[in-house]
Write a structure and sequence with these properties.
Layout (H helix, E strand, L loop, with lengths): L1 H5 L2 E4 L6 E9 L3 H8 E2 L13 E7 L2 E11 L10 E8 L1 H13 L3 E2 L4 H8 L5 H12 L3 H11 L2 H25 L10 H19 L2 H9 L1 E7 L5 H9 L17 E7 L2 E7 L9 H16 L2 E7 L18 E6 L15 E2 L8 H13 L14 H22 L4 H19 L5 H11 L4
Parallel strand pairs: 1-7, 8-10, 8-11, 11-12, 12-13
Antiparallel strand pairs: 1-2, 2-6, 3-4, 4-5, 5-6, 9-10
Helix pairs in contact: 5-6, 7-8, 7-14, 7-15, 8-13, 13-14
Length: 450
């Protein structure tokens, strides 16, 4: 960490392109010194008050580059925990690039992707879950994703992991006290009590793992394939959900030959809608290629909207999507033309794209299928990502092994080893692994050597 932190880094923090302003950021031990070499405002940058914007100009030698506004954030009371200087200039691509080059010539180096947030983590300003939330906040596509990222950035998810870590440390302390200090007359707790504590850890791990699906939905969206026979209204449904004409609509079967993909926000759920070619028997080589792509899309789908014509009878085709019932919503379109008797009692959402009817019912059905009908009441502050999920699976494996070792009356050393593995997995999530805490817990809880 030391070598990394000795550098002063600089970067343009606003997106590439023209705008009203651009923001450049410096962070590191020489941030004030580097800024002082290029910024002129009648006094040295080191003399400027923190967190107060100062108008001045950036000069390359004697040549003025731009009028700017400079603000200092002194460490540790800054985003990175180091001295940070922010320079706001006019938002042209060339001028912001010229100022960055000037900062680099005067002692800074170009920041790596994510390095400002990495430094914030290394300085203890945030744990890894909060660092990951920064990117989630930037890339959020819906209000739910934005709210979840904001609450994770505030530390709600980290609190759950820290509490779980404390539980593991407590259980491990009991086991290691029994191993290392057998003569201290310490009650190591009964086997049942230890099992109960391990089971509490396992239950919390399972509870966190249950949020993985919600995390994938919020971060990646739900890949939703609109599927059905030709001319049942798949493209009409896509256009209606999007709110504009994205796909060509025609009464002629086989109009859609390729896959069309768009993203919408449905009650806070990002849906990646995929309109596909209608599936039917066809001798047309191009149409058959489109149908092959349709089948591949269905296999990859998180959710399938199976559209059928309500006014026509059920055909053999309508239930060819085998093995997908758990992620399929049957949508009966053209209900304005009447419903064929063969559909009586079918578990389906009935809509009319032509009359714009039934869309709210469809939205509710999608929400229920994705989240089991509880999306409105879900605690969105806790939604783990793939990295958390992998670490929690490792922790669960270790906790299960510790439980089995305890039940089989295997040496406590084996139980402790498995618990240390679980503790390490949780520590990986937060970016904190400190075995000294276990020893500290032993002495504080059991008064060894009193």
């Amino acid at each position: 960490m030391g070598g990394l932190m000795r550098d002063t880094i600089a970067a343009i923090s606003t997106p590439f392109g023209e705008g009203a302003i651009a923001l450049l950021r410096l962070s590191g031990p020489r941030a004030v010194e580097v800024a002082d070499a290029v910024f002129h405002a009648g006094k040295a940058v080191a003399e400027l008050p923190a967190r107060q914007a100062q108008f001045g100009a950036v000069y390359d030698g004697k040549r003025k580059l731009d009028d700017v506004v400079l603000t200092i954030f002194r460490g540790p009371h800054s985003y990175t925990g180091e001295d940070v200087v922010e320079i706001g200039c006019h938002g042209g691509v060339l001028i912001s690039r010229r100022i960055l080059e000037l900062l680099l010539r005067n002692g800074a180096r170009a920041a790596e992707p994510g390095e400002f947030t990495q430094r914030a983590y290394l300085h203890g300003k945030m744990d890894l879950t909060q660092a990951e939330a920064v990117m989630d906040l930037i890339s959020a596509q819906t209000d739910l994703a934005l709210r979840a990222a904001a609450e994770q950035l505030e530390g709600r998810l980290g609190e759950r992991f820290r509490a779980l870590r404390e539980r593991l440390i407590e259980v491990l302390a009991h086991v290691e006290a029994f191993i290392d200090f057998p003569d201290e007359d310490i009650d190591p707790a009964t086997g049942d009590a230890l099992l109960a504590k391990i089971d509490a850890v396992r239950a919390e791990v399972a509870s966190l793992l249950d949020t993985a699906g919600a995390g994938r939905v919020l971060r990646q969206g739900v890949r939703t394939v609109i599927y059905g026979a030709p001319n049942v209204g798949k493209s009409s449904l896509l256009n209606l959900l999007l709110g504009y004409e994205r796909a060509i609509v025609s009464s002629r079967p086989g109009t859609t030959r390729d896959v069309i993909e768009e993203t919408i926000n449905l009650h806070g759920i990002p849906l990646r809608l995929v309109d596909t070619a209608g599936v039917r028997d066809s001798e047309d080589e191009i149409e058959r290629a489109g149908m092959e792509r349709t089948q591949r899309q269905v296999e990859r789908a998180d959710l399938v909207l199976h559209v059928a014509d309500a006014s026509e009878g059920i055909s053999d085709f309508e239930f060819q999507v085998s093995g997908l019932k758990s992620r399929t919503v049957l949508v009966l379109n053209k209900i304005d033309l009447g419903e064929h008797a063969s559909w009586n009692g079918a578990d389906a959402v009935r809509i009319s794209c032509l009359k714009n009817q039934g869309l709210e019912t469809l939205a509710a059905a999608i929400e229920a299928r994705v989240f089991g009908g509880t999306a409105a009441h879900r605690d969105w502050s806790v939604a783990i990502n793939a990295r958390h999920e992998a670490a929690l699976e490792r922790a669960r494996g270790f906790a299960n092994a510790a439980r089995l070792a305890l039940l089989d009356d295997i040496s406590p050393e084996f139980v402790a080893e498995e618990l240390r593995g679980a503790l390490g997995a949780i520590g990986d999530i937060l970016g904190r692994v400190d075995q000294d805490e276990v020893l500290g817990k032993i002495f504080s809880s059991f008064c060894i050597g009193k």
